[in-house]
């Protein structure tokens, strides 16, 4: 299936890439992402986002969209040559979301550049977003849903693999991207445990256009997560992430310690696996996610809380270093000594080792 060129004759993937400084989207996260985080990522040339439902009402969403539009316009005016990335809003397309129509209408009024849909991929929504020049990316965890979304006309698919924060899939993200690429040449985004510049390069190597990072952005100064949540991520390894439907009815990844603190029996959850019944010690989904903290297996690589600007600078450097390091690998050609930065560095033990 071939991507339809936009009004400028460019594919949606090329248009989006042209406006980013790194092939990366900071993923929308319930109760975490807000305009402060999204504007900080857009400023660094990384697509920023938030779920529409992070505002309690559609009126509140309208205020956030105005804040985004004004914030981005201000950044562009201050530095016309800077690459300021577009932003995205996540809409839950499901009958249980009574705000969908009102929120979509606001996104249309504000011409939100990228709409990220979860659960349902609907041709009517895609048409209405295309009408103002927007792009639709749809979240999928398997090939069956990916094919349905392509049939609905979406511009891109977000392949959410195993180990992702939130409602993760069970497929290896490398395999999921590879299978999607067999029938789709639109925008493909890879998600699931990605936290470093090396991971971005790996996503590109298997054919994704963008990497998608959620958990990594929880641990930034600008995220609205509780400081204790950020510390728990710093302390956790992948083995501290529990995949269970017991909190929200659909399997999602949570930090083991936060489940324990909320009174869950980890051994019982592990035994029940994806068949664990939804336990209801807490009155609502929002209350549950406020106290039981979701994170992906990428916590292994996270041990700090930098500003978004410092994080993006680091991700860019790691991606570059990883690309250069591969040049010396068997079958990939020799590093070019004429080019600076490619000579092998003398090995030094890091301090403290
Ligand atoms: C705390 C948390 C909340 C999330 N909430 C949402 C959400 O509201 N909508 C959505 O589409 N995805 C949500 N996600 C999933 C992310 O958008 C993204 O797919 C995921 O974080 C990528 O995996 P990673 O965390 O390993 O980087 C959430 C993830 C986390 C960690």
3D structure, described in words:
This protein is 38% helix and 13% strand. The N and C termini lie far apart (52 Å). It folds into two domains: 12-224, TIM Barrel; 237-291, no CATH class. By secondary structure, the protein is an alpha/beta fold. The model is unreliable at 341-353 (pLDDT under 50). It has helices at 12-18, 35-43, 58-78, 100-109, 123-131, 143-151, 173-181, 197-205, 215-218, 227-235, 256-261, 266-272, 285-291, 308-326, and strands spanning 24-26, 48-51, 87-92, 114-118, 135-140, 156-160, 187-191, 210-213, 241-244, 252-255. The strands form two sheets. An eight-stranded parallel beta sheet has the order 1-8-7-6-5-4-3-2. A two-stranded antiparallel ribbon has the order 9-10. Helix 2 (35-43) runs parallel beside helix 3, helix 3 packs parallel to helix 4 (100-109) and helix 8 (197-205) crosses helix 14. The protein is built from 14 helices and ten strands. Flavin mononucleotide is lined by residues 27-30, 32, 51, 90, 118, 139, 160, 164-166, 191-194, 212-216, 294-296, 298.
In short:
Helices cover 38% and strands 13% of the residues. The protein has 14 helices and ten strands. β2, α3 and β3 form a beta-alpha-beta unit.
Summary tags:
single chain, about 350 residues, TIM Barrel, 14 helices, 10 strands, globular, binds flavin mononucleotide
Terminal Cα span: 52 Å
How helical, in percent, are the residues? 25-40%
Work out the strand percent.
5-15%
Assign an overall shape: globular
Major beta sheet, strand line-up:
1-8-7-6-5-4-3-2
User: How many strand segments?
Assistant: 10
Order of helices and strands: HEHEHEHEHEHEHEHEHHEEHHHH
**What small molecules accompany the polymer chains?**
flavin mononucleotide
At CATH level 3, the topology of the largest domain is TIM Barrel
Report the C-alpha radius of gyration, rounded.
20 Å
Tally of helical segments:
14
Broad structural category: alpha/beta
């Amino acid at each position: 299936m071939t991507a339809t060129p936009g009004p400028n004759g460019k594919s949606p993937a090329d248009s989006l890439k042209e406006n980013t400084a790194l092939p990366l989207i900071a993923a929308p996260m319930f109760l975490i992402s807000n305009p402060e985080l999204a504007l900080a990522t857009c400023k660094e040339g990384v697509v920023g986002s938030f779920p529409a439902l992070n505002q309690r009402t559609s009126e509140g969403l309208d205020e956030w969209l105005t804040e985004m539009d004004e914030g981005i316009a201000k950044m562009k005016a201050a530095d016309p040559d800077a690459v300021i990335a577009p932003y995205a809003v996540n809409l839950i397309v499901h009958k249980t979301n009574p705000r969908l129509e009102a929120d979509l209408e606001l996104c249309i009024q504000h011409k939100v550049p990228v709409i990220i849909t979860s659960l349902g991929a609907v041709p009517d929504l895609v048409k209405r977003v295309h009408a103002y020049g927007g792009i639709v990316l749809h979240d999928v965890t398997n090939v069956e849903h990916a094919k349905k979304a392509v049939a609905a006309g979406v511009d891109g698919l977000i392949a959410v693999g195993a180990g992702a924060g939130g409602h993760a899939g069970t497929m290896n993200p490398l395999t999921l991207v590879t299978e999607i690429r067999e029938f789709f040449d639109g925008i493909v985004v890879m998600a699931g445990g990605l936290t470093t510049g090396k991971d971005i390069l790996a996503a590109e190597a298997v054919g994704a256009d963008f990497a998608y990072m959620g958990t990594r952005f929880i641990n930034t100064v600008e995220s609205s997560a509780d400081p204790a949540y950020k510390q728990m991520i710093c302390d956790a390894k992948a083995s501290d992430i529990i995949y269970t439907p017991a909190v929200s009815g659909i399997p999602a990844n949570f930090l083991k310690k936060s489940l324990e603190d909320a009174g869950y029996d980890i051994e019982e959850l592990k035994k029940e696996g994806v068949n664990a019944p939804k336990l209801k010690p807490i009155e609502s989904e929002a209350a549950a996610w406020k106290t039981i903290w979701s994170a992906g297996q990428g916590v292994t690589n996270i041990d700090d809380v930098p500003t978004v600007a410092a994080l993006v600078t680091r991700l860019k450097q790691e991606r570059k270093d990883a690309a250069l390091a591969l040049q010396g690998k068997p079958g990939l050609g020799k590093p070019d000594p004429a080019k600076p930065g490619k000579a092998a560095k003398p090995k030094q033990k890091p301090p403290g080792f």
